[in-house]
């Protein structure tokens, strides 16, 4: 009887231990999901690019190609705010637009900690619904269609990580994934207009037929 009682107690002890381990693992997974979901979820949206932080070299390349520029700067898809904050430290009035609220809140805190909160602003926004016409310097990790045709003629557009297909940049800096490409707004808008014209021509031909 004593052996049976001891065995029953041991079995109950193992059962409780198993429940505790399962609970801890489950809680850890839930916590991990809660932290990771806001960063990963945008990657699953059809109109939002996933968050991939800019490297130190990439930030330096952006600042290098804009070294002779000043005024307002916007980072479209600003992520954790590192380009906006670096630009503010170099005299730009810098803004960042980002869909992920966690990244925006972190960017605001980081700007405050770095002492540039007065010359930076971060906004939670759908990047496809924002007007960027008031900015003279634009940094973008997305697609050129985000900018429509609203930029001032004197604006410069810096594309990071991926160039705009078939477009000829006026300047390039860096190499590999750290490469940045610079386009002037006038060429940028004319190229975009040509692309839209080519896209609508087949539709017009089909209508005529």
Tell me what the structure shows:
The protein is of the alpha/beta class. The protein has two domains: 14-44; 56-196, Vaccinia Virus protein VP39 (Rossmann fold, 3-Layer(aba) Sandwich), CATH 3.40.50. It is built from five helices and seven strands, in the order ααβαβαβββββα. The chain has helices at residues 2-40, 56-65, 82-89, 101-114, 185-208, and strands spanning 72-76, 93-98, 120-124, 137-140, 156-160, 171-173, 180-184. A seven-stranded mixed β-sheet has the order 3-2-1-4-5-7-6. A hairpin with a 6-residue loop joins strand 6 and strand 7 (180-184). The model is unreliable at 30-47 (pLDDT under 50).
Helix-strand blueprint:
Layout: H1 2-40, H2 56-65, E1 72-76, H3 82-89, E2 93-98, H4 101-114, E3 120-124, E4 137-140, E5 156-160, E6 171-173, E7 180-184, H5 185-208
Parallel strand pairs: 1-2, 1-4, 2-3, 4-5
Antiparallel strand pairs: 5-7, 6-7
Strands side by side in the biggest sheet: 3-2-1-4-5-7-6
How many strands? Answer: 7
Main pleated sheet: 7 strands, mixed
Distance between the termini: 95 Å
CATH architecture of the largest domain: 3-Layer(aba) Sandwich
Q: Look up the CATH topology of the largest domain.
A: Rossmann fold
Which shape, going by the Cα principal axes?
globular
Counted up, domains total 2
Task: Provide the CATH superfamily of the largest domain.
Answer: Vaccinia Virus protein VP39
The whole-angstrom Rg is 25 Å
Mean pLDDT across all amino acids: 77
Q: Strand fraction band?
A: 15-25%
Pick out the low-confidence regions. Answer: 30-47
Q: Can you identify the CATH class of the largest domain?
A: Alpha Beta
Helix content: 40-55%
List the total number of helices. Answer: 5
Label the structural class. Answer: alpha/beta
Helix-strand pattern, N to C?
Answer: HHEHEHEEEEEH
């Amino acid at each position: 009887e004593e052996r049976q009682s001891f065995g029953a107690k041991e079995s109950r002890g193992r059962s409780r231990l198993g429940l505790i381990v399962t609970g801890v693992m489950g809680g850890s997974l839930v916590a991990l999901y809660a932290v990771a979901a806001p960063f990963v979820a945008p990657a699953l949206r059809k109109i939002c690019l996933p968050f991939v932080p800019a490297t130190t070299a990439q930030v330096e390349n952006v600042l290098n190609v804009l070294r002779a520029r000043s005024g307002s700067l916007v980072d479209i898809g600003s992520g954790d705010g590192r380009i906006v904050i670096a630009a503010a430290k170099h005299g730009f009035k810098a803004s960042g637009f980002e869909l992920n609220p966690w990244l925006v809140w972190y960017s605001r805190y980081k700007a405050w900690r770095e002492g540039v909160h007065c010359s930076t602003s971060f906004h939670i926004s759908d990047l496809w619904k924002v007007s960027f016409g008031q900015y003279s310097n634009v940094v973008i990790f997305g697609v050129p269609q985000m900018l429509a045709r609203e930029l001032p003629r004197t604006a410069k557009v810096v594309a990071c990580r991926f160039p705009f297909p078939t477009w000829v940049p006026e300047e390039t800096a860096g190499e590999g994934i750290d490469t940045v490409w610079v386009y002037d707004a006038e060429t940028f808008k004319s190229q975009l207009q040509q692309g839209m014209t080519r896209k609508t021509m087949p539709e017009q031909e089909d209508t005529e037929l």
